[in-house]
Amino acid sequence: MNSNFNRRHFLKVGVLGAGLTLTDYLRLHAANPHSTEKRSAIFIFMEGAPSHLDTFDLKPDAPAEIRGEFKPIQTNVSGLQICEHLPMLAKRADKYAIIRGITHNVADHGLAKKYLLTGNKASQTVSYPEYGSVISHEFPSARNLPTYVSIDESFVGPGYLGSRFSPLTADKPQHGMPYTVRGVSLEDGLTVEKYKSQKLLLEDLDVAFRGFGDLDDQVRGIDRFQEQAYDIISAPATRRAFDLSQEKDSETQRFGRHEFGQSLLLAARLIEAGVHFVTVRLRPAEFDFDTHQDNFPRLRKLLPPFDRGVAALLDRLEERGRLDSTAIMAAGEFGRTPKINQGGGRDHWARAMCALVAGGGIRTGQAIGETDAAAAEPATVGFSPDDLAASFFKNIGISPKSEFQSNVGRPITLVRDGTPIQDLF
């Protein structure tokens, strides 16, 4: 055996997923010049922007029109408090870190989402890729697995990396309902054997028409997804990963019998099967954090399923030995106004927000950063979404200063302005 191929390399094969052969590993290793410690990842996108003052950055000593209706509770980490409606996460604060004082100046939902999901401000000349597409480019999964799954449609897409690195989009699971993967389910009596016959016919046609010109990127991307769909449908182990009926009822209950909990349960199953990146998108109107009105009644409904689902995710990954090899981040695109408006809501506020991070190399059981007495802006030096993205990529195992060839004819730095938050690691 080559002396350079040590026990550490074989442990990495286990991290990258079941069913990965030595040949697969050597192929993947050669395809990842930018990577260091390869980890899987889950990004929980709290779309609509949750109120930082009413979740992880409460200000109980502020005036009533700022502090709001919720009270802080003590976590299992001395001196660290979070919202009373997150009691399960309060008991697990030693398993994650909170980043406070994240700040930027983009208060528009669309532009702020692009900023958060890529770590770069939106540009008129460059379309930046979202996290999962970068991982799809750098950490390709075994042949019969998607590298990147987005539970619900992705918002940004692969950007300059090209459509080949788009996610496999999965429908949000509903408890008690048969689950389907969009675009790859067998329907209308189509069996695997019939699908194989159709695929062979398509391959014959491909051979017949080959040479009529180079395929552009969009067509290559479509071809990739056709092949991936066949691989997924043909692999029983992969299809089982999407099948929540395989779970015990007690596990379903632990995550919660609601859309969010079941989405996180599905994310855990996919990571365990060898998928490298999963985005769980919580978007309006099913799970709307855009609380311009009735902020507190709405959060009383939204926070308990978030609390249960994320707590269950942390527990399951830890129990199955996956937490150290899975980077986790939960965040929205900005925070909410310190002062409550006349409708009992909080409006857009980009100058202060927070995020929860866990897994991988994160130093947990701490809150990093601080906002002023009204949670209106960082008390000292704040962190940008660029810094947050750089930290997430570092935890996954990709240098944020990696350069990629783009479709604009020049190399582009992955995260142009951000640097990893050192106290996180």
Mean pLDDT: 83
Helical fraction: 25-40%
CATH H-level homologous superfamily name: Alkaline Phosphatase, subunit A
Which parts are unreliable, with pLDDT below 50 for 5 consecutive residues or more? Answer: 1-35, 183-191, 208-215
Order of helices and strands: HHEHEEHEHHEEHHHHHEHEEEEEHEE
Give the distance, in angstroms, between the N- and C-terminal Cα atoms: 34 Å
Q: How does the overall form come out from the CA principal axes?
A: globular
Say how many strands there are: 14
What topology, given as strand order, has the largest sheet?
Answer: 6-5-7-1-8-11-4-12
Could you name the CATH class? Answer: Alpha Beta
CATH topology, which one? Alkaline Phosphatase, subunit A
Structural features, described:
The strands form four sheets. An eight-stranded mixed beta sheet has the order 6-5-7-1-8-11-4-12, sandwiched between helices. The protein has helices at residues 7-16, 22-30, 64-67, 87-90, 109-118, 131-138, 192-209, 217-234, 236-241, 249-255, 259-273, 295-319, 385-396, and strands spanning 40-46, 72-74, 81-83, 96-102, 148-151, 168-170, 277-282, 326-331, 335-336, 348-349, 353-358, 366-368, 403-405, 411-413. With 425 residues, it is an alpha/beta fold. Helix content is 34%, strand content 14%. It has 13 helices and 14 strands. The chain has a single domain, classed as Alkaline Phosphatase, subunit A.
